[in-house]
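tmp note - Proton myo-inositol cotransporter
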Amino acid sequence: MSDRRRQKAAEDGERSLIGPPSGHAGESLLGRDASTPFFVYLLAFFSALGGFLFGYDTGVVSGAMLLLKKEMHLSALWQELLVSSTVGAAALSALSGGFLNGWLGRRICILLASLVFSVGGVVLGVAQIKEVLLVGRVIVGLGIGIASMTVPVYIAEVSPPHLRGQLVTMNSLFITGGQFVASVVDGAFSYMSHDGWRYMMGLSVLPAALQFFGFICLPESPRWLLQKGRSQEARQVLGRIRGGRDIEEEYDAIRGSIEEEARDGGSGGVVILRMLSYGPTRRALVVGCGLQMFQQLSGINTVMYYSATILQMAGVRGDKQAIWLAAATSATNFVFTLVGVWLVERVGRRKLTLGSLLGTGLSLALLAVGFLLSAQNSPAVTLHPVDARNSTCRLYGSCELCMLDPDCGFCYLENGTSVFDSSCLPVDPASTDSAAWGRCSNRTEESTSPYWAYNHCPTPYSWVVLLGLILYLASFAPGMGTMPWTVNSEIYPLWARSTGNACSAGVNWIFNVLVSLTFLHVAEYLTYYGAFFMYAGLAVVGLLFVLCCLPETKGLQLEDIENLFTRQLCSCGGLPANDSRHVHYVRVKGNNYLHSDNDASDVD
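out:
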């Protein structure tokens, strides 16, 4: 395809102009000093409501589950089903979202996602049986998948280059904001022991309806309109989002990119196969999917899931306390995501991602050290009551060994910092909140009643783990929490953008499921500290991947970013934005096309 590009360009009298350093790229099209129309921020806000719903619906379930499992007598299997069904549905709809985006457009897909969110919220709010709850969670998952890959693409395509990183990152900010609001709502309704979960889950209808009615009046992406041949409508939309400034150069750049792909036969065939057969898009897909994979392999969902256990290790007991402190964890995540929004256009995507992965690896190592110290100082089992069922729990001599068996829990009395009269008992099959038999099977609120610990051990080293948790969120949120979505919205050419984002979002959800389902098994074989050391090692591998493969895209026009991937994959990361030159195509008279030698076609 690269040879055909040269020949066609020469025939049409195109030439490549070596532009200014890409740290300033795009200023000829849209000056940095020119005021950005309020309409662009309005578009970004209503789009990012999809991210808010994403965060709310994934975050609200943890608090709602504390009430649901008691009211509907949910077994551990049903609790896992209600959580994992949403993630599985999101993975499937994200993979199909590329086709929907190309067929229906970004605007219709966002409207569809908000409608699906609304229906799912209503179903969850009125559910009377657990089977209906499962249907509602699947419906919500379908909306999450569509929104997760559509919203970043839409925001990227309507944003001016100098604000694109901030506005796309705003979607991630809204995701963490949704998680924070969900935890606050969980806390507020946790005092309603009956039907409180209905309000928690049903309130998602409000932002979904706001987005739906808001987007009815908002335009389609001008790039998608041009791709579909609706040039006049595209020109009108582009003029509207650029505040009436001269749009001819930007319009011509977008149109030229689309025409070039059409001349090269880019409008036919299966898109994913064309992406894999063309070097630059293949490399971009490897980078985009790699970023999403390492986001999950860095353990974010495990850490967020395990935050409640970390708080229990620190001595927090009671559902209401745990819910409110989980809200503080979500608030920390939100605040540091806001830091990422501020930094993305100042330090660039590449540096922000590298710094984030470095901090993530170090903080995961600190978390592992905290769990290691807790394991080495684990309370001993001092009581061995007769077990009529002859379970394996009676064989364990310490809390740490007891915790590694998912069928066992630790029952103990506490006097200040000392633990005594402790035993390892089988967990109740109906609920992990109590033992199957014995003194911890029917606990009271009296001060002399024993404590029941599942998945954690009492320890004086909880402060190390808490510090690791805070540093982890502070490191992960600004970079790896946001950049995979931001970078994926930028690095694909228009013809491949929907499919590329669908594939990368699908990879994100697939590894989300993989990490979530394997964590307890990994912890059982490697111990908890071994699992977190493993995640720290994977974060280091991700750091090396980004160092070698991720180029800087700050300030570049979307149509110019493809040129960053004409080099071999492992050399793409060697092009800092403020040092490299970029190629921008403009149509001129004459046959002075400058041939490029950077058309390597293999992923190295």
